[in-house]
Amino acid sequence: xxxxxxxxxxxxxxxxxxxxxxxxxxxxxxxxxxxxxxxxxxxxxxxxxxxxxxxxxxxxxxxxxxxxxxxxxxxxxxxxxxxxxxxxxxxxxxxxxxxxxxxxxxxxxxxxxxxxxxxxxxxxxxxxxxxxxxxxxxxxxxxxxxxxxxxxxxxxxxxxxxxxxxxxxxxxxxxxxxxxxxxxxxxxxxxxxxxxxxxxxxxxxxxxxxxxxxxxxxxxxxxxxxxxxxxxxxxxxxxxxxxxxxxxxxxxxxxxxxxxxxxxxxxxxxxxxxxxxxxxxxxxxxxxxxxxx
Length: 293
Ligand SMILES: O=c1ccn([C@@H]2O[C@H](COP(=O)(O)O)[C@@H](O)[C@H]2O)c(=O)[nH]1
Fold this sequence. Notes:
This is Orotidine 5'-phosphate decarboxylase. Helices cover about 50% and strands about 15% of the residues. The protein has helices at about 5-10, 10-25, 35-40, 45-60, 70-75, 80-95, 110-120, 145-150, 170, 180-190, 215-220, 225-230, 245-250, 265-270, 275-290; strands at about 25-30, 65-70, 100-105, 130-135, 155-160, 205-210, 235, 260-265. The longest helix is centred in the last third of the chain and has 19 residues, at about 275-290.
C-alpha cells in the first residue's frame, strides 16, 4: 500500500523532464581538476576545491537542468573534501537544482544497500537526486539502489556504453544469447521502466551512453533498444572528449528526446567568473535544445 508521502512525491523522471524543458537538455559537471583549479587562480587544496565548487553552485544553481559533481575530485582531499561535496550538494538542493552524483557505485546486494543509503537516503549527508552505478556485478545486484530510488523519488543512471574507448572490452562482449553486455544492461533497464506512464518524457532509471559512442550504437544495433528503455540517457563526452551535439543527434536518432548531454571541462573552462560560467552553460544548453529537439 502507498503511503501519503509516496503518493504526493514527484518522481525523479518527472522532475528531470520539467527541468529539461525549463533549462534545456544539458547536464553540467563539477569536476575540479587540478589543472582547472590552477587556471582559475586557485590552490590545489581543499580551500581551492571549496571556492571552485561553491562558485559552480552560484553559477549553475537555478540555471541548469541537472548538475553532476564528480565524487573523485572531492574524495582526493579525504574527509575535508567530502565535507565540501556535502556542502555542494546542499547548495544545489537549496537552489532547487537537481543533482546527479557521479560515484559509479556497484557491489554485491548487501553492500549495495549501504551505498544506496549513503547517497539516496533521505538524511544522508552526501544525498543526491540521482547517482551513477556500475552494473558489472550484475544489474540485479543493484536492486537495493533501485528500491531506495523508488521509495525516495530519486534517479539511477546505469553505465551501459561508456564514453572511453576501453569500455568496449567489456561492454561489446557478447553473451551466450548473442546480446552484447551493453544491450543486456539496456534491456534490463527497459524492464525496470516498463510501468512508466506513456506520457512521461523520461522514466526514473536512466543509462549512461557516452556522447562519443555514435558508431558503436549503430554497429551494435542499439538504437531501438535505447529508445524503448524509456529512461534518460546521460551522454558524457560533449566538448572535452570530442563529441558535439550534432554527433549526439545523429547517433541517438529517435531516442534524442531522452538524451541529456553532459559537459564538464567544456563549460568549466569559462570560469572562474560566475556570470561567464552561466553564459557558457546557457549557450551549450541552447545549442543542445536546438540539435536534439
Ligand atoms: O562514460 C562516462 C561516464 C562518466 N563520465 C564522467 O563525465 C565527466 C566528463 O567530463 P568532461 O570534462 O566533460 O570530459 C567526468 O566526470 C567523467 O568521469 C565520462 O566521461 N564518461
